[in-house]
Amino acid sequence: MFAQRSPWINRIALLIVALVAGLLFVDRFSVLPTRPIALLLYTWALLLSAFTLLLGVFHLLWTHLERIQQGSQEWPLSLLLLVAFVLVLVAGLATPGGVTNPLLEWTFDALIAPGQATLFALTGFFVVAAAYRYLRLGSPGGLWILAGALITLLVQTPLSQQALPSVMTQFADWLLLGPVMAVMRGALLGGALAVLFAGIRLFFGPKS
User: Fold this and answer.
1) Residue 122: inside a domain
2) How many Å apart are CA 104 and CA 92, to the nearest integer?
3) Do residues 164 and 155 make contact, with C-beta atoms less than 8 angstroms apart?
4) What pLDDT digit, counting tens, does each position of 100-109 carry?
């Protein structure tokens, strides 16, 4: 019985998601009849986002606690993560000032921001490795992609940006504002068209 109803349940769920996304999209054009429903949907989305965030935190803590109890190979890293989580949580709850607390500001400036910068710097190595593999495959245009990526990375790095000539900086800015932006807009337009056709197929497709 449930096996026969399961496709219809999936279809109804997809229809609800499509209707909600459509209402939120129409609300961007300031259509007055949809504004109360859109505000209600925004409120639900905020509540679901908060619940999802808490669920993710609890899942993260539970996963690393299990690693420590089982004595897995990387349990010291899990212990370090739990200790850092507890320290930041206590610093945020026990001291006044909220997010403007000097201790939290120091934690962000001395720990979180350098960690984010390190992860961002690692993307450069991944880009170079991907471009090298792309060139090894003999794909046309790979050299141009590698050159553009290297110029953009050099310009975005503060140390090398000061040593580069202004012409290269202007060329990198033109790359970001011209071809790269055109590709990004094309990708967004393609994604929007794909969602549109998927919605049309969902509403008017075969009832299977």
Assistant:
1) no
2) 7
3) yes
4) 778 888 888 8
